[in-house]
Amino acid sequence: MPEKKSRISRFIDGVNHLIRSFKNFVKASFLSLVIILIILLLLTQMDQAFTMMVDLVENTKFSLFLAFLFINGLAIVLSHFPIYTYYAADLNNSGNYTNWKKVFPLTIWPFKRFPVFVFTTNKDTDYTPDNWANYLRYSIGLLIHIVWIHFIISSFAPNLIFENFPLLPVKIIIYTLLIVPFILYIIQKEKFTSLTATETKDGIPLTEDQKRVNGAKLNRLYKKLGVWYFVIAISSGLLLFLMLFIGNFSPGGFILILLTSYLFVFNYVFFRLLRTRLSQVSSTLQHSLLAPVRFFFRRIHFLQKSENYILLFNVHFIISIILLVYSTLASINGWSLSNGIPILLAFFYFYYFIIASLGKYFFVTKKMNLFGTRKYRILFGSATVIVILLFITNCANVEVRTHELDLVENTKTEVLESQFLDSVAAKNDNTLFFIASHGGGLKANVWTLNVLNRLQQRTEGKLLNQTIAMSGASGGSLGLALYTGLYKENGIDTLLIKQQIDKIAQENYTSLDLTLTFGLDSYRKIWPLSQRIGLRDRPYYAMVKYQKNVENTSEKTLSETSFRDYWKEAFQSTGYFPSLIMNTAGTTGSRGILWSVKPNKFNAIFPYSKNLADLYDDTKTIPFYQAVSTTNRFPVFSPAAKIPGYGHYIDAGAIDNSGLLGCLDLHIYLLNDSRKVLGDKQVAYVEIINSKSLYVNYLINKFKEEQQIDHILKNENESDNIVVDLKTGLNLDKIPGYLSDYITNWENTQNGKIRYFKIFMPHKVSFEDVEAFFDGKIENGDNNVVSDLKAFLDKKNNEILNLTEAPNKSFFDPWEFYEPTLSRHLSKSSLNYIDHILKHPLLDEQFLEIEKLINTKRIEKNENPEMAF
Q1: Are 614 and 397 spatial neighbours (Cβ–Cβ below 8 Å)?
Q2: Would you say 473 and 434 are in contact if contact means Cβ atoms under 8 Å apart?
């Protein structure tokens, strides 16, 4: 008999075993772990995912069902396929542990000859199954559920933190309880191992009596687990049903979706524990009171066979294909799209299943020597063709035209600079305006449209009649351009324009972006799909949606009217319309600009810029909607626009995310122009801002002004150089911040000749938001800064809460408002927020001040700096 090891030795052996198991687990599960990490980053590090979750709960219940379907499907598939990698890599000497065979589980045509490869274990090897490797592999399914639950909490948190809701204790409880299913799985698996063993841990064979006792215990365990699985499965289905039909966006809805998700975690654990033992479990459920449980297990008994279980993956795969094919067709044809979350999850399932299935097939091919089969030859030939096409795409001198814009003939009937400036000079108004709008996705777009329309409504259409130019970046620039189209179609009918703004805002652009980013646009990078074959890219189809709502048309192609000719129609419709400056960023570092007016000397107005409205010696130009799309090209999800012969251009925010630079360029040019168009008129800048971080900065400065302090002490978090470099490089507020201070200083020295209005979108701001802005902890110093700042924030937040939430709501009364995020899809509650926040006291005072400037026709010194700041 071997000598019994000490506790320390057994502990060291256990730790070494765990380390070996973990290393093997990472090697076998690397692809699954990468998929989970990417999903985690996309769902929790990009704010628009939170808005999509809110939309799932508010409106798109079928999409919510699909999201749960794919989360559960991913949990099973991500935790299943690593076993093949484990055996294929001969980890822990497991290479010869499997014997493979081909079966045909389906008897229905045309699937009769659809093969499934399954394996049985070979007991004649020296391989000993590693329980810890098994536990870790199945924990992958738990990880995807944990990511989903964390995503839910993060999406609801912006509203919960301003409610009388114990969010922090709930988070602690939930995150702690997420460990329970994993522990439960390990405990029950260890019991199975112990009760099915034929010898003791010391290698002594068990007697028949001991085996009989263990068998009875095992049956009782099967019976208990079977009943619990039935209860959990039925409860999961019932809660899912309640969530889909009565769940809503409320504190109660938050608890309901959390409970549903948590029960599905246990559902996964029990499925993993009992799937291969369904017949044994069913045999223990003979009591009449357990008839419903027995019926349940008989219905799922077919999953005990490996081939049927594997077919479950194929069912999910087919569902993902159906969803993705429909979403692609819907994106191209302008049909209704599902929420982006199930589309994103479907793509991950689709690609993972293909990669993992191919890996399994080539492993089985090697084990069964299937190299000469027709299926292998087809797969090998297909792979060879793909490699050749990739080689041609990347190495041959073949132009890729996937994201190429159309060029149209320049009609040369544009409004000339002299004509436009004569119109400006003829105005009798004493105040002329420049309007700039920040980038920020659909949030910026819709905010810009609503602010412009509200100002137009309050000034009876006079604001734009007194505006020289509008310039923006990204979503803000898109909003200015779309308002140009709405004005062209509807003039100063602000009520009708508001209806069309709402239609634009309700469109789902995120799902279109996701569908084509991970699908068709990626495939169209490969020759010959990279040529013009009748398909266009995602910015094109997004602009088709905008065109449809602006012009009330069903056209599936974009208008070929040039940028300047389109604007001229707006200019001529009522006799005047402000010039439009479309900004974009070139890969050479210079700006790309389309000015709606034909300039005398372009670079005298816009230095270090490329005139994209006059191409090929003024013979070619860009159509309006495609020109507008060049400004709204945020990296990764929106591709760079390729202008034939002129290079690639990306989102305008890469250089100036405010649009102020274009306005300043034109203003300075007019001040130096010999025609003295501005005369002694007052000039007012209106800057439309949607950024939460800039609003936080505004509140901080306002607080310091009220408290008469120059600096807030803080203990900054130490950051790695790479992190600091990335934060600095990716911060889009550098140039806008400089330009803002420049105009503020200019205003302060001009005695009323320059006015400056910052139209912020007010946000609820927590103390944690301020510390996140500082990237450190705020210290009290000599003053009681912390408590004073919290009181100040409470006061400002209450101004918003009074506008956006009814008092004394019940636990299940839905929230009607959710702060918009940097997104290409806004929920119903986000759109409600924008509509109601326009009544905020700060905005109301600013609107009133602008209204006075327009109606009084006199120069007024800025007596209230808050109006400008």
Answers
A1: no
A2: no
What dihedral angle (degrees, nearest 10) is formed by the CA atoms of 366, 371, 373, 374? Answer: 120
Joined together, the tokens standing for residue 464 give: 């734009």
> Which DSSP category does 205 fall into?
B
**Is residue 216 within 8 Å of 223, Cβ to Cβ?**
no
Q: Any bridge partners for residue 397, and if so which? A: none
What is the maximum alpha-carbon separation in the chain?
Answer: 110
Whether pTM exceeds 0.90: yes
819's tokens: 């702060």
From the list 788, 415, 349, the residue with the least C-alpha distance to 570 is: 415
46, two tokens = 């990009």
* 679-710 b/e (C-beta count within 10 Å ≥ 16 → b): eebbbbbbbbbbbbebbbbbbbeebeeeeeee
Tell me what the mean pLDDT of segment 582-603 comes to.
94
Distance CA 28, CA 521 (A): 31
Half-sphere exposure of 842 (CA within 13 A, CB side): 20
Tokens representing 405?
């814009």
In tens, the pLDDT along 450-463 reads 999 999 999 999 99
Return the ∠ at Cα 490 (arms to 552 and 442), rounded to 5°: 65
- Higher-confidence residue of 356 and 726: namely 356
Residues 6+ apart with CB under 8 A from 805: 815, 816, 817
Q: Give the integer Cα–Cα distance in Å for 630 and 405.
A: 9
Give the CA distances from residue 841 to residues 691, 762, 788, in Å, rounded to whole numbers and listed in that order: 18, 10, 22
3-state secondary structure of 612: coil
Exposure of 537 by Cβ count < 10 A (0-12 exposed, 13-18 middle, 19+ buried)? buried
The owner of tokens 């993956």 is: 313
pLDDT per residue over 817-834, tens digit each?
999 998 889 999 999 999
Strands (E), 551-590: 579-586
Contact yes or no for 663/471 (Cβ under 8 A) = yes
Residue matched to tokens 């979350």:
341
Give the integer Cα–Cα distance in Å for 53 and 58: 9
Q: What percent of the chain has pLDDT over 70?
A: 97
DSSP state of 623: B
| Phi, psi at 356, each rounded to 5° | -65, -40
pLDDT digits (tens, 9 = 90+) for 378-429: 888 888 998 898 888 888 777 778 889 999 999 989 999 999 999 999 998 8
Which value, in Å, is the radius of gyration of the alpha carbons in the chain?
32
Alpha-carbon gap, residue 812 to 256, rounded angstroms:
10
Q: Which amino acid is at 721?
A: N
Percent of the chain whose pLDDT exceeds 90: 66
